[in-house]
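Pasting as-is:
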Amino acid sequence: MPGPEPAIHAPANSDPRDVLAKAAAVVQHCLSHHSCGDNTRASPVLPTRALYIGEGLDNVRLVEGAGRQAPYVCLSHCWGSVQPLKTTLSNAHHHFKSIPWAAIPRLFQDALLVTERLGVGYVWIDSLCIIQDDVADRVRESKTMSDVYENAHVTISATSAQDSRSPL
């Protein structure tokens, strides 16, 4: 069985359209040449919560996975010294309705754009999909994180971003 596809490393001055085109080509290659693209294989179960972008980026919102099956993208990122946008007990009800694009930090916006470009309707970002001030939720969700990353359609690894304000 072939190994995983190589990571796409893009210099900081890369044209984002070129990087997205290369990413889409690598994902398409994987889907057509590896067992992950086997149409008989069911889509993974969504994580407990995910961001839904299936109706467009002007209507990003948090949704409950509730056993639904669909491909999703993960964002792996460094929180850095600046706390990213987070879901908390006090704002979760707002996030389930809508998260205004202007409130979403640049790194998360870029990840949402990549997800949309790849034709995927869901993205998982830890600070938004785990209720950060609910200890029970954080403990429960931390136990499933390896499965969340393992079952992702693609994981975007923002290795050069210092925090959520940085571009992808």
